[in-house]
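User: Can you predict the 3D structure of YhhN-like protein? Sequence below.
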Amino acid sequence: MLGFKIILYLNNSLLLLCFVLGIIKLKHLDKKEKWYVYYIIFLFIIELINKVFIVFELKNIPVLYPVYIAGEFFILNSLYTKKLGLSKYGLIPLSAIAGIFLIAAQYAGFTIDNDYAKVISNIIIVCLSGYVLIQEIKGSEAVNRFLLVDACIFFYYSVSVFTFIVQHQLAVISQQNASLIWGINNLLSSVVYGALIYKLLRLKK
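Assistant: Sure. Here are the predicted structure tokens for YhhN-like protein:
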């Protein structure tokens, strides 16, 4: 449990730092790259709301988790759609799918322990980010300066697919094993934040 808490604090600290740096460096990014900051801002807001409910011991808002799934899906896929140079009309089906995830997760009984919407969302993110990553590897690092971040995102969501598939078993396995699984998940998301912090710090004015 101690290791899990340490990783959780590290994760939250990196997210906060990434959020602050993203706001500061936003004007130095092009239109496509700004979506990385939008992604971090969204995650920060979701995490902040969640922490407020925990601190004040309030009942969690049922719609918060579905909004997280739909928002994460829409932002990341919008990012990679733009990086692939696809038509802006590609955002229409993305919006529709995000809406489906929002409705399904809220009304179909999906929770964090039984979440097929999250699995499907992550699989789509993995496929699209993986394709973008292949295209970026073929190009130059000067042009694709967020290559490292894309690689970390691809790896994180690939592992997350496995994590969410076995989520329904977390209720019956030991607390130690559950903490280990979630600790790994938080550690990998920390790697994503760390990679983004590294790239933001290296941006030239």
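The helical segments are 2-25, 34-55, 64-83, 91-107, 116-138, 147-165, 175-201. The two ends are 42 Å apart (CA to CA).
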